[in-house]
């Protein structure tokens, strides 16, 4: 049995990746794509042609997807789909995702609902226990569906590495500097070559706020139908670097109990072995991979491990008795965006049994 | 009156920059250049031709420097010079700088002597009061000259910004992530394009150790003929980025007293106004420049301010009540290397009055 | 006596460079700036702040320019200016430059008028003898002013190097591959980092046509009040490369008479010595500079020679008895755009004596 | 039945790629690896660890290869192998390949033997009919084996595209500008980031000579036991660009008979359909792929088509009645080096039947 899915915001960078992954996914069938009114009415192939993701599709899927007519997101009827993926920009997402969720479950890559108290930020392999909050959301808002957002792309990597440290050592604070790839800025207009060639831009609008807040929610405790934010602090500095894909993060954590690089390594390596997402089609074998290269992880060399779905950590070094320094790398357009959303959808589908 | 100078290690990247600066400097006259035995005997023009620094020389200085014959550093007689600049690699520097210092003052860009207890790490505008330790060094070692090393290139920027924070707020700890330019790795062989294009290499051998240790000495207190290391801690992560020149650093400090971005800004801006180095030819007007661009400092846009001799800070943000986040940028081959060494030499020359 | 100038299209990349050059130029005084209606009414400082060119202005000029209010190009009255610089996009330039020229001389960086039969493409130091055609233009169109376009940025370099080859050896054909910097694409939106990082894009819309046609007009013969196109052919391939500034071109020419690299070198070196533009403020000492580096010219090393106003050639090699291969480099935003237009304006001003 | 192979020069960039391809190839078994005396005696894993190619090996092959002890190329006994791959530098290759060939067939990526009159330059799918010349070589030199070199990496792409043009239209001349990736310069030391970041280096030592000569031999006619060089001329300009992998070439050809872009396209598309290499494991389905992207081929987007074994052409444009302009792209480390050599070996193995 196949799950019928639609993609809202399908003509952006994330939306096109979503559509191309779903078109090849054995669980899903893409039955609709939508975008802003300016793009509505045109064949989807006009947008996909000339992109990496469009070109990499097998012929039959490509033909089908290219011929699909883009609908207007504002007047899109989600009823034809069992599940809707939203890659809408944050501004329209606020209203449209709510509109879709009246009838249909929505898995979203946008930030619109992330900090809503009745909404979990689902991160595959890390906090599936937050899924229950979606029922609160449905009740609160009288929705038949729900809105399940995934985290910010950098947070997807960071929070995954903080989880085992919190579990094993307790977490007091994290100081993070991100070095984020240009693909994280999307395509229209994205980052200008003139600005970033041979340069670093140490500012990404609204990003540090997300990196500071989302991990505390993702690692918060479900208690009595709500999430209690985790008590650690995150101080973030976010920079844009001339790298194509892959967000690298330099992390310094202080823990409640003594920690050593060796213990941290074991905590990273054993993390996620029993996660309920294990075995799902998009799940990596290892939630976290410890890099054996003493000069790693490196964006270009390590971002595509396990199909871009594992978080790679490396250079574990002491930072005092209760401190640890490490680097972590997340593929921002795979685990950090489209593929991460698909993993969440797989989990939700498998859990709720409505579909599979 | 002119100060006669020689450059040891003159055929490396730093050495060539030193020679070209000195050749144009009104206080100094280059009377000798040396390198390893493999290069000895060849005209210096063979090395300078085809480099930026060689080509940018005015004609008469170029002619003179190009015709100079490279001597063998191992058998170099420093007596002909009033002052010797050493840009030797660390390994030979250990022995040769000591040998030169028997007769002649040495200003060094190498790390060989930096952590010796009787040796200061001189950073123009920051710790001129450490100069007195050179007398201890002379006494201890029965030298007529001395060895005065400058800091590591990243430390030159970091320690400059930590100084006013320590003075005003007290300093408990700093967590630093550096994003260092390829020119910091020198020319032979330097960083391979294949390794760093579209990539970040989060490891620079032996660098984090220097960034952790040198600031504590530079900001230490001279007491009874020795330097007491400052009590704050530095936890560093050093990365190599595809940037030509300019080390950018993301810094998180915890202070002893409450700090706010506004207060920190004032401390940065007023720092160094009365430094004994003010007015020297290579001294910047502002030791620290606060960047007015909300997305700065950026290596390509800001590294050349004040001839590469000011440290640019930006994006001052709170990090809790006693925490501050900021970015700082140092031109690694100017303030961080050759020009920084020249400023130190100017100060030493002006102070000891032997020469000027 | 000062020439009052205005800049139309002043908020684009070229327009801002024009304004900043003119603001510092002793001959000129900027009395107005204009842009599209969307930008009109705002202080010009909003656009200049945060740009290289804005920041590099001396304080008094910066203050004056930043406070100037941007006018609407469509309703701009050119009468207040003795001379108008147009950096308008081609589409509006067609209509607006004609409108301005009714009353006022216009020096333009746009392509709108370049191929009009009664309009010369003026390239400083190369074809000042075409200036007379502006009188035909005035007569034909009943204008008091005129429109004097400069060439395409790549052509500014190419045609300069073809001129002495044509003069000395006769020119049959040129085969050209350009490697053009990202700054050539302007700022809105410019080239996306995601497209060009670690990549080459071998297509620039409408560029090859310009490179093929403009040199034949620039090097054409003025005859009886019209320009007879030169008879050589140009076959061009234009590519975009991850370089900030500086268009590098690989050129293969076939000549009518035998040519050798040595003879070509002499022709390049002696070219432009008697050009009527010699001695003007923006004129380089050498119209063409032969690069002494056997691996040059290189964009990053050579683009700024003589303030970006000389064309650098190198690697002169034989291409058969009547063939020559060489590389040439032009600073696309200096000689190739704003500064090149200023040089043309200086020449026109000095020649027509109306102003200076 | 398995063919036992050894790799000489196994610790360089090409050698490591060769070894890793061969380790996974069902026809071949790696029985020895050699390098200079400085590397001899060390486990091969010391060299492979930390490289892309080493890391991408499946576990059993990796274990086996990593444990292999590197032998000294100068004292290597080729007798244990049925076939030897040489990735030696040109200087030692001259002597050592001859020494190996006394007993053993050698497929070489070096340039040492390419221009020897009794040696073909074998390019899979293009000139298999030259294979017969190896018998002349054996006879001339009293070898049991032979030396079969593959072309220069840029030539592998260029000559492949010239072949169908010569067949269909006759070929008079080609003017070529290459934009070559940094991986083409190998690893020790390779291209310095400081030299090529944001820059183009329009000179690659000895490269233009190879691009001018090798295609004429590859496309020459076997006649009476010798190759008559093709009569067309090639004028080349070779540049190094900040691209990781993939040599892009801008080509202008003049033909003997009229040519149009449409006819050229058909010639490219139908080329190689009946090549004797079709169906071999490393052979692409299409020897030449015409790029459907109007702004292609682009190194980053197109280099990996068909496993890096097809040559991609694009932007076919007229260059006069008997002229054609186009771009072509070859993966320099796949078809242009290691994988190209393996395809040649597959063909030789299948043809001579000694092994398969």
Descriptive key words:
6-stranded parallel β-sheet, 6-stranded mixed β-sheet, 2 domains, 356 residues, homotetramer, Dihydrodipicolinate Reductase, domain 2, Rossmann fold
Describe the structure concisely for a colleague.
The structure is a homotetramer of 356-residue chains. Chain A has 356 residues and is an alpha/beta fold.
Write up this protein.
Four copies of one chain form a homotetramer. Chain A has helices at residues 13-24, 45-48, 52-55, 59-67, 90-101, 133-141, 153-169, 193-196, 207-218, 261-270, 299-302, 338-352, and strands at 3-8, 28-35, 71-72, 83-86, 105-108, 146-149, 171-180, 221-223, 226-228, 233-240, 247-255, 288-290, 311-318, 323-330. The first copy, chain A, is of the alpha/beta class and 356 residues long. In chain A, strands 3-2-1-4-5-6 form a six-stranded parallel beta sheet, with helices on both faces. Chain A has a six-stranded mixed beta sheet with strand order 10-7-11-14-13-12. Chain A contains twelve helices and 14 strands. Chain A starts with a strand and ends with a helix. In chain A, helix 11 (299-302) links the parallel strand 12 and strand 13. Chain A folds into two domains: 3-151 and 338-352, Rossmann fold (3-Layer(aba) Sandwich); 153-330, Dihydrodipicolinate Reductase, domain 2, CATH 3.30.360.10. The interface between A and B is large, with 37 and 37 residues.
């Amino acid at each position: 049995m196949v799950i019928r899915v639609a993609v809202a915001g399908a003509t952006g960078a994330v939306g096109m990746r979503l559509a191309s992954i779903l078109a090849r996914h054995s669980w899903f069938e893409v039955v609709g794509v939508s975008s802003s009114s300016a793009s509505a009415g045109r064949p989807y192939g006009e947008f996909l042609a000339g992109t990496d993701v469009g070109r990499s599709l097998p012929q039959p899927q490509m033909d089908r997807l290219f011929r699909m007519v883009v609908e207007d997101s504002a007047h899109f009827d989600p009823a034809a789909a069992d599940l809707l993926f939203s890659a809408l920009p944050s501004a329209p997402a606020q209203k449209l995702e709510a509109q879709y969720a009246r009838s249909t479950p929505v898995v979203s890559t946008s930030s619109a609902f992330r900090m809503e108290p009745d909404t979990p930020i689902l991160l595959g392999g890390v906090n599936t226990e937050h899924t229950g909050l979606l029922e609160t959301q449905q009740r609160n808002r009288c929705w038949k569906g729900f809105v399940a957002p995934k985290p910010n792309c950098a947070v997807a990597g960071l929070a995954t590495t903080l989880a085992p440290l919190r579990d094993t050592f307790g977490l007091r604070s994290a100081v993070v500097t991100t070095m984020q790839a240009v693909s994280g800025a999307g395509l229209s207009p994205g980052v200008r070559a003139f600005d970033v060639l041979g340069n670093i831009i140490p500012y990404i609008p609204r990003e540090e706020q997300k990196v500071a807040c989302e991990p505390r929610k993702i690692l918060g405790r479900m208690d009595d139908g709500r999430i209690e934010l985790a008590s650690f602090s995150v101080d973030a500095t976010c920079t844009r670097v001339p790298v194509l894909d892959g967000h690298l993060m330099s992390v310094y954590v202080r823990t409640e109990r003594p920690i050593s690089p060796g213990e941290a390594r074991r905590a990273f390596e054993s993390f996620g072995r029993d996660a309920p997402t294990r075995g799902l089609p998009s799940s990596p074998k290892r939630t976290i991979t410890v890099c054996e290269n003493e000069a790693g992880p490196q964006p270009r060399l390590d971002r595509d491990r396990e199909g871009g779905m594992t978080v790679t950590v490396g250079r574990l070094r002491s930072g005092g008795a209760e401190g640890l320094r490490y680097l972590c790398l997340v593929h921002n357009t795979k685990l950090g965006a489209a593929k991460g959303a698909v993993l969440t959808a797989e989990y939700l589908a498998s859990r709720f049994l409505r579909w599979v």
